[in-house]
Design brief:
- By secondary structure, this protein is an alpha+beta fold.
- Strands 2, 3, 5, 6, 7 and 8 form a six-stranded antiparallel sheet that branches. The protein has a two-stranded parallel sheet with strand order 1-4.
- It is elongated.
- The longest helix has 11 residues.
- The chain has a domain of 101 residues: Hotdog Thioesterase (Thiol Ester Dehydrase, Chain A, Roll), CATH 3.10.129.10.
- It holds the Pfam family MaoC_dehydratas.
- It comes from Paraglaciecola psychrophila 170.
- InterPro entries: HotDog_dom_sf, MaoC-like_dom, NodN-like.
- This is Dehydratase.
Length: 154
């Protein structure tokens, strides 16, 4: 569930977990569509027969597929700032892909607001500590610092 707040209250949440997303099941169809969209057709992603012979035991999601799901995670676990005109991706720091996501795994995201900087009046650069958890796996699929820009209506 997303927290709704005014921009002036953002700093009250620095260092706090803003939420945990719902579970997302990673299907072979999603992996195949992502492979087509990114032109990354390595067999470990798209060939279940060959991938079964690897240490992974099945096809695995692209790391960037898991990373791209952070947008969906943010809708569930981020913050909703009142009077927002738009939110933009600003970049990433310290991305680490720590564990493969096997096909049909369930993943969910965790978000902690790490830093807030008002770059200009009404433009807030937010730094998030994010992780993607895999159901029944101790190690996260990925961790990263995600930078987003929120622009408030004038």
């Amino acid at each position: 569930m997303t927290i709704t707040m005014q921009a002036k209250d953002l700093t009250d949440y620095v260092g706090k977990k803003t939420g945990v997303s719902r579970w997302f099941t990673i299907t072979q169809e999603q992996i195949d569509i992502f492979a087509d969209a990114t032109h990354d057709h390595q067999f470990i992603h798209i060939d279940p027969v060959k991938a079964k012979q690897t240490p992974f035991g099945s096809t695995i999601a692209h790391g960037f597929l898991s990373l791209s799901l952070l947008s969906a995670v943010a809708y569930d676990a981020g913050v909703n700032i009142t009077n927002t005109l738009m939110g933009l991706n600003y970049g990433f720091d310290k991305i680490r892909f720590l564990h493969p996501v096997n096909v049909n795994s369930k993943i969910r995201g965790h978000m902690v607001l790490a830093h807030v900087l008002e770059k200009r009046p009404g433009q807030f650069l937010l730094t998030w500590d994010v992780s993607i958890e895999i159901e029944s796996v101790d190690k996260p699929a990925l961790t990263a610092q995600w930078l987003t820009m929120t622009i408030i209506n004038p």
